[in-house]
Structure formats: structure tokens, C-alpha cells
Amino acid sequence: MDNRFLIQQHALELGFDLCRIARSRALTEHRERLTQWLDSGEYGGLQYMQRNLDKRLDPSLLVEGTRSIVVCAIGYKRGPVPNPLMNHMASYAWGKDYHLVIREKLRQLLQYIQQLCPGSSGRVFVDTAPLLEKAWAVEAGLGWIGRNTLLIHPELGSYLLLGVVLTDAELSPDTPMQGGCGSCRRCIDACPSGALGEDRMLDARRCIARRTVEACSAEEEGDLHGWLFGCDACQRVCPYNLHAPESVHPEFAPLPELCSMTPQDWLSLTETEFRQRFHETPLERCGLERLQHRIRTFLEKH
Questions:
Q1: CATH 3.40.109 domain locations along the chain
Q2: CA-CA distance, 220 to 217, in Å (whole number)?
Q3: Structure pTM?
Q4: Which residues of 208-238 are buried (b: 16+ CB within 10 A; e: fewer)?
Q5: Which of 2, 39, 58, 127 is flagged as catalytic?
Q6: Res. 219: pLDDT tops 80
Q7: Distance CA 292, CA 161 (A)
């Protein structure tokens, strides 16, 4: 039996919703577009995007000897919750930190690949290395890049979290998927800050997700249009997301302690209590002080 099929089956058993494979190569066709984006300043001060450009485009420079790219995805879509504050937080932040969850699953998948391909080696990555994860997901056949600049799968939509295994094992690649957004531009029209361009380019300077998650001052944050952490505005209107199934993964279920918190609970929370409750969630990255400032602003306007 083809190792590709065995790997994909094992990925599903580990809890991934999708798993496809691409053959490693230099993504030279992305260089001009990426360079143009950086030169325009639309990267929004994300300094790490300016570093390691060559590695970002060629996985073999990141992990020497890479022959195959195994891309996995987990859907995290959840419906609205009764807690009003949570509905103003990106839904990926309602549960455990996806980096921790996906990295462990990828490590187990890499061990399985090494059993199938004795002598092979590799490394796993979850959104923390100079790697074009979405481009490789397209190459492997997991979907296409939508006008919201996110990966879209025809059945699971764009509420997807990605993880990648780079391995020197020679694996049969999958075929890229045909699909697209057609004439739909709901995400562009719905973006409250005008961060989405007509050419599938994101102006991170405007993006609320960038401004609420990455380090910046309250003045630099500007008008967040009610969002407290991240932003799901473009995803909530996508037709593919409207029909996508809700996630069945318990790791990304809303945390009970988050669901029960009132605005007053948030404003009286201490740093110690915040770390105890949310140290393994995406909210930790933002910090309590910034969240409390946004909640006060939110309450003033609502």
C-alpha cells in the first residue's frame, strides 16, 4: 500500500481533518509577490516576515534534505456563544493554544513516517518558522487562497489551523485542488478596517487581527470596531464557512472558565489569576492589561 495513504489515514486517526502531501521545491513564483508586499510596508511591522526570505521560499534551506511536505489541517469552527465578550474574540482563541495541540499531533505523525520510512528524519512546524504554510497547503491540494487571504477548503471552509512536517522521506505527492471564490467578495466588503485588497493581498497595518494580537501600544491599535482579540469578520460571511460543519475536536471547545466570565470578572482579574487560567491559550499572548483596556472601551461604546 502507498505510504501516502497510510500517512493520511494515520493523520486522521491522530485527530487531523485533512492531510495532503507536496513534493518539496523552491517556490520561486512567490518571490516577486512577497517582496512587493514587504516593500509596500503592508506587512505591518511584522519584522519576522522580513527575515529569512530565501528559507521562507525554499524548505530545503530550512531543513536540509527535505523532499516532502506533509500538510495537515484541523477545523475549529464554532457557533456563537451566549457570552457577549467571547463573540468579540476570534473563535480560535476560545480553546487551548493550537500551537501546543497541533505540534504534539505532528510529532506523533513524524514518528509514524519514520517507522514507515526507516532512516528518514524531519521536523514539525506550527506557524513559528519561515515557511509559507498556506502556499504549501495549496500545493498539496488542501484548498485555495480566498479573497480573505486564508486557505479555503470546499467543505471545511477557512476555519482551519495548519501544521507542517518537513521530511527527507520520498513520498508520493497529491494533486493541487481546483476551486475558487468566483465573483464573491463578501469578505472584502465585511472587513471593518478595509484590510483586504482586491488582489488577495492583506494590508496588515489595517488588519484588526494583527493589531490586537501583535505587540503594539493602545494608540497604535486604533479603532478595533468592537473586537477584543483577533477578528473573524471576513470568515463569518464566507459562504463556505456558512455551510461548514462545526468542529468536533474537544481541544478547541470553548473553555468553561472563559464562557462564564462577565466584564466585571475580567476587570477585577489579577495578573496571577490571568496566567493561571489562560497560560495555555492564545489570549496569553495579548496580556491582561491590553484586554482590560479593550473591554473598558467596549463597555463605553455598548
A1: 3-81+95-167
A2: 5
A3: 0.94
A4: bbbbbbbeeeeeebeebebbbbbbbbbbbbb
A5: 127
A6: no
A7: 27
Look up 223 and say whether it is catalytic. no
Contact criterion met (CB below 8 Å) for 176 and 134: no
Q: What is the pLDDT of residues 6-36, one digit of tens each?
A: 999 999 999 999 999 999 999 999 999 999 9
Which candidate, 185, 176, 180, places its Cα nearest to that of 145?
Answer: 180
The residue with cell 505510504 is 3
What's the DSSP call for residue 230?
Answer: S
Cell numbers placing 267: 476587570
- At 217 the pLDDT is 63
pLDDT at 115 over 80: yes
Fill in the amino acid letter for 10. H
Architecture of domain 3-81+95-167: 3-Layer(aba) Sandwich (3.40)
| CA 196/CA 14 separation, integer angstroms | 34
